[in-house]
Amino acid sequence: MPQNRDLEPIILPMDLKFNQKPKTIFRNNLDALKVELVDAPTREQALDVAWHYVKATWADSPDITPSDAGLAEKSKNLEDVLCFRALPTPMECLGFTFRLSGLSFQEVTHIIRHRAGSFAAQCTGDRDLRNDDAVIPESVENSPEYLERWIKLTEEAKQLYSDMTDSKVISMMDARTILPKCLTAFYYMRLNLKDLLGFVRQRQDIQIQPAADNILAIRMAIEAAKLLPEISAAIDFNRPDMHYVKTFRIQEGDKWISRGTNLYYPEPKNDIFEYHPDDTIYKCRREDLNGTHGQGKTKRFTKMWKELTHEFETIKTDYQNSQ
Fold it and tell me: Most buried among 4, 105, 173, 307, using CB within 10 Å?
């Protein structure tokens, strides 16, 4: 069909920013992270679903009435489901939707690698990215000589992106490939309860997973446990990271190899096996890598992790005391 200039132009869903000077707010990568639970079942709904599914196995008729059971009994039933002491299928019926923001490209690749989830992404193809925020890890913040270059390269990349986009001879689709991983995005992530627990257990690993993943995992666990305190019985943030422990050092014939990610020396909770100091890429724990001017300082992650684990343990204690 031909063009028709008599038609009223459509209203595009994005803001056009042609010829605007790019703006960048730089934030610490952990401070930038935000976790919001935007949709989930109520506790009553979750308790009833778990009751119906578990009790159906032995019921003589479909008329199973959870109202006949008290709160404590239904809560114990859901806890059994979460801890695999009862039929785990109810977990697949309970969906949780999170809005995760302040994500660098690295966190994005890690959440979408969890294939059991459903995702809605902040677009990069036809949305102008010149004003998107950028994040900086603490070790870089503590290294002035690298921090200056980090900021300069990010700003130069965004300016080049803007110049190419403004030229209108290079598509945003092509221009975006120059942008660095440190620019932020938000994602919606939908998981059933079983896969949520799996995601948290995988990403809580402080030996192998990045610090940002650890923070996302525990915040997601806290938000879910605030709604369903029974979840706190199924997660233990103090347990050793057994994938790391089991894959760190393996004997194969007359040689010792690794099938894991041997970045750092074991954290105290994981220091339950013998190892050679040359078994790791860095000859220290993760806490000790804190930039050129951050040695001896307590890292931001350590403070946040202590506060968040305390918050989660408080939920767990309150739940246990209520039983």
Answer: 105
Count CB atoms within 10 A of the CB of residue 205.
19
Q: Look up residue 32 and give its amino acid.
A: A
Quick one: which H or E segment has residue 322? helix 300-322
Residue 316 identity (one-letter amino acid):
K
Lowest mean pLDDT among 6-20, 49-63, 152-166, 279-293: 49-63
Class of the CATH-defined domain 26-241: alpha beta
Q: What is the pLDDT of residues 15-63, one digit of tens each?
A: 999 999 999 999 999 999 999 999 999 999 999 999 999 988 887 787 7
CB neighbour list of residue 55: distance below 8 Å, 6 or more residues apart: 64, 77
Dihedral of CA atoms 188, 194, 195, 197 in degrees, nearest 10, equals: 90
Helix axis angle, 300-322 to 211-227, nearest 10°: 20
| Tokens (6 digits) for 133 | 């925020």
Q: What span, in angstroms and rounded, lies between the C-alpha atoms of 316 and 225?
A: 8
How do strand 26-28 and strand 134-136 relate by DSSP bridges?
parallel
DSSP string, 73-130: HHHHHHHHHHTTSS--GGGGG-EEEEEEEEE-HHHHHHHHTSTTSEEEE---SSS--T
Tell me the mean pLDDT in the region 238-254: 96
Q: For the chain, what are the domain ranges?
A: 26-241
Would the pTM of this model clear 0.90, i.e. be above it? yes
The residue written with tokens 């859901």 in the block is 78
β-bridge partners, 97: 39, 190
